[in-house]
Amino acid sequence: MSALLLFATPEDVETAFYRAFLDEDLDDLMEIWSEEEEVFCVHPTGQRLSGLTMIRESWQSLMNPARTGIRQIDVTCLLKWQTMLMATHQLVETLRLDQEQAGPMIVTHTYMRGSCGWRLVCRHCSASSETILMPESAGHVLH
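The structure corresponding to this sequence follows.
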């Protein structure tokens, strides 16, 4: 991880995550993760992946060129909670694929602030089987 890449806010990390995801850039996607041992990721399949090696391998398999390409990710923020050293964002993701749509999915990102700025320590993504009611105050971000 480059010590030169500093994320000033959790939102900066989130923007970099979605940019790397859309660009299918594994190196950039891994750059946003904390180097802490306790980082973890849960994909909609439900498997808990602990540590950077397992997380990297899972994203590498998801970015396989043979899969259907993601053209756009619609992200709506439901909740943001932040202290000086930790932040949590609850989001709704909808992926726009070549011929179809995937989602909505409920996503929770947890960020920690350290010597290299803000970094992702947890991503938990679950498929939603029901319509998600958006609060009136929910912001809409299009990546």
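Helices lie at 10-23, 26-31, 52-62.
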